[in-house]
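Module 6 notes. Inverse folding takes a fixed backbone as the condition and produces residue identities as the prediction. Think of it as a translation problem where the source language is geometry and the target language is the twenty amino acids. Below is one complete input and output pair. Work through it position by position during the lab.
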């Protein structure tokens, strides 16, 4: 295997490592994106009812969306007394998105469209 092929393979592995299906699934809904935007602009963690003003979804739906975002690691929750307050996992989210962008930048466009296959000659 040539050094160039190892390098290409390594870049593809790096890119694949940054692709997080759970995050893309969690962020793939317009209501959840509205919730993320609301939390991103908030000066403090918010309750479900405070977040609920972002979209035309009933509070129970907002709660389910927050649970899915939490399971994906996009938001964090902290119980304070009887309330649960939600905030974005900003450092994790921005770090992962920057890492993904850097991994894409490191690949040549033809590599993304035509990943190397075993037995295929360059």
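Target side of the pair, the amino acids:
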């Amino acid at each position: 295997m040539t050094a160039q092929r190892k390098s290409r393979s390594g870049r593809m592995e790096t890119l694949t490592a940054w692709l997080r299906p759970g995050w893309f699934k969690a962020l793939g809904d317009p209501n959840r994106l509205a919730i993320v935007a609301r939390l991103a602009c908030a000066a403090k963690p918010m309750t479900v009812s405070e977040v609920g003003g972002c979209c035309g979804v009933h509070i129970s739906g907002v709660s389910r969306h927050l649970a899915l975002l939490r399971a994906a690691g996009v938001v964090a929750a902290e119980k304070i007394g009887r309330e649960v307050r939600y905030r974005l996992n900003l450092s994790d989210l921005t770090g992962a998105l920057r890492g993904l962008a850097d991994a894409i930048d490191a690949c040549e466009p033809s590599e993304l469209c035509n990943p190397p296959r075993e037995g295929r000659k360059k």
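Reference fact for the lab report: Strands lie at 75-80, 83-88.
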